[in-house]
Amino acid sequence: MGDPDDQETLKRRLAELRSEHRDLDDVIARIAEQVPFDQLQLQRLKKRKLQLKDEIAKIESALLPDIIACLKILTKIHFFLRGGVAAA
After folding, report:
1. What is the reported pTM?
2. Taking 80 as the threshold, does the pLDDT of residue 88 lie above it?
């Protein structure tokens, strides 16, 4: 697994991105309520929100353990404990 310091850095960054994403929700809602509203500004904010969502997903993915690798290790342990020889 990754370095604990890297994990903590990613967790902090994830919290920052989630906060900005929530803030954009509020800003977008307020702008959309205005009549008339600035369509270009609204589009830019929505685009930024999508960028944040993508970055959040990447970080969440990086923080998740590699499930397949874990299953392979557990399978090897299982065979070893049962007296078998696990394939490499």
Report:
1. 0.68
2. no
